[in-house]
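Practice problem 4.
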């Protein structure tokens, strides 16, 4: 069938691109020395495989207590993230400060007037501030004014809910052993212990791609009005998430492609109308409110940068943030001339790089974007830390134990990417029984990679899709060990 051929072709492209990601992250890592990262990755690979086999051996007994284990683990992780987030308290500045302090001002005064100039220049962060404002306002009703702590609790909740969703998705797609192994991976991925303190758009949206996919799995078991309601919920979830960080929409787009492959035109139309309708209504309503009550749209058009600015910056050097590109863009005040100048400069850089240059840049960007298992949380904790603790020695990049922490977390992440990559190769060879079910997940991961290859380079930008990579890796290890007969298929596969 054409559909199956297209899916196999996609897995082939995915395998080639993520082979590049894996090789560069492991052997050309710019942050952590390969001579330490490679043995750490090998050791992690062996240990995680042994743990998986142990879980598989006792799967039947553990299955009876699955929900108890899941709830207890999520609660413990929530507590850990809140505690570490409070210990690592910092005074937010720059973009982080505008989002957190702007939300605090909005909750207390009904306006964020002090930050109008910032958000006129960076309207993309309005959603993140508005999202936090809702929770800050609720907290203020109860007399709570420690908004940093509230932000930590909210971010930790997003992370803990994600843990639950990932485990449930693994169980729904396959079996209990995968659901439990997901908890093991979260437990050993030390970067999640500190995610609660990373109160910004990346961590605040970590729940949304997984929740959209979980709702999609539910919709597959429904019919009629119930499915329509779930489609509307998917659209609502994606819309709220994308207001905070628009990459969340990548998951919804991947699901739309999967629906086109698996459903009749009538169902495709229903899903499309629900998704587009809800997303459009929420985004238009939000923008209408902001520009009617707070910001001046004409000022925003003059002060903000066109999206092409970040594509242009992503083509300079290794694609990281650089002040000179901001100076170039901001020097032009007329919106039309600004867009034209940035677009022209972008195409000049593409032409100058050529095919070999673009390839080399993709290698650099892949290593930076996916080769740091810390999820870039140090970007927050080094900003005017309010305490001095031994924990800071591990999570702040300039401190003495950071390289050990970073090497370990990156080793775990690299193993997960390896499992996901092997799963893609197995799908090409028609040996992966889950390839059709996993297609929207792999497609969304490919989507975030493709986006990051075009965008500004930053190790934090894939964080909200890290749980999706986790799911792909977990499902793949199940197939690998089943094929090698290290474990037995204790339960029939779920449809």
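Answer key:
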């Amino acid at each position: 069938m054409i559909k199956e051929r297209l899916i196999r072709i996609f897995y082939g492209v995915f395998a080639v691109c993520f082979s590049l990601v894996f090789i560069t992250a492991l052997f050309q890592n710019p942050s952590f020395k390969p001579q330490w990262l490679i043995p750490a990755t090998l050791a992690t690979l062996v240990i995680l495989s042994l743990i998986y086999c142990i879980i598989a051996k006792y799967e039947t007994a553990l299955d009876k207590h699955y929900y108890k284990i899941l709830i207890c683990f999520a609660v413990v992780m929530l507590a850990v993230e809140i505690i570490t987030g409070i210990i690592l308290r910092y005074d937010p500045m720059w973009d982080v400060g505008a989002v957190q302090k702007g939300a605090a001002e909005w909750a207390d005064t009904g306006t964020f007037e002090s930050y109008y100039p910032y958000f006129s220049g960076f309207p993309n962060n309005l959603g993140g501030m508005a999202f936090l404002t809702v929770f800050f306002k609720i907290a203020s009703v109860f007399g709570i004014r420690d908004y940093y702590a509230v932000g930590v609790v909210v971010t930790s909740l997003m992370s803990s809910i994600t843990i639950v969703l990932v485990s449930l998705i693994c169980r729904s797609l396959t079996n209990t052993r995968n659901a439990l192994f997901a908890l093991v991976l979260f437990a050993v991925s030390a970067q999640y212990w500190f995610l609660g303190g990373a109160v910004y758009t990346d961590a605040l949206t970590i729940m949304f791609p997984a929740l959209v996919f979980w709702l999609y799995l539910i919709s597959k078991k429904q019919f009629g009005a119930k499915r329509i309601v779930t489609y509307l919920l998917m659209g609502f979830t994606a819309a709220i998430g994308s207001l905070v960080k628009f990459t969340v929409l990548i998951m919804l787009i991947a699901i739309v492609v999967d629906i086109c492959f698996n459903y009749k035109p009538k169902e495709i139309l229903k899903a499309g109308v629900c998704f587009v309708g809800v997303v459009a209504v929420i985004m238009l309503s939000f923008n209408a409110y902001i520009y009617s009550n707070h910001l001046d749209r004409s000022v925003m058009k003059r002060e903000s940068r066109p999206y092409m600015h970040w594509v242009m910056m992503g083509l300079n050097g290794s694609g990281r943030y650089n002040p000179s590109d901001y100076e170039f863009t901001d020097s032009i005040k007329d919106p039309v001339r600004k867009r034209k100048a940035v677009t022209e400069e972008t195409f000049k850089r593409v032409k100058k790089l050529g095919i070999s240059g673009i390839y080399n840049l993709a290698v650099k960007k892949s290593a930076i974007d996916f080769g740091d298992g810390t999820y870039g949380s140090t970007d927050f904790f080094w900003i005017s830390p309010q305490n001095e603790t031994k924990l800071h020695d591990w999570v702040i990049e300039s401190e003495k134990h950071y390289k050990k922490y970073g090497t370990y977390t990156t080793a775990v992440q690299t193993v997960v990417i390896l499992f996901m990559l092997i799963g893609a190769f197995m799908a090409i060879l028609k040996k992966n029984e889950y390839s059709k079910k996993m297609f929207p997940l792999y497609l969304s991961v490919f989507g975030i990679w493709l986006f990051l290859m075009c965008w500004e380079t930053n190790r934090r930008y894939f964080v909200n899709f890290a749980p999706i990579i986790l799911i792909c890796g977990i499902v793949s290890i199940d197939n690998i060990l089943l094929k090698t007969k290290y474990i037995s298929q204790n339960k029939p596969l779920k449809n």
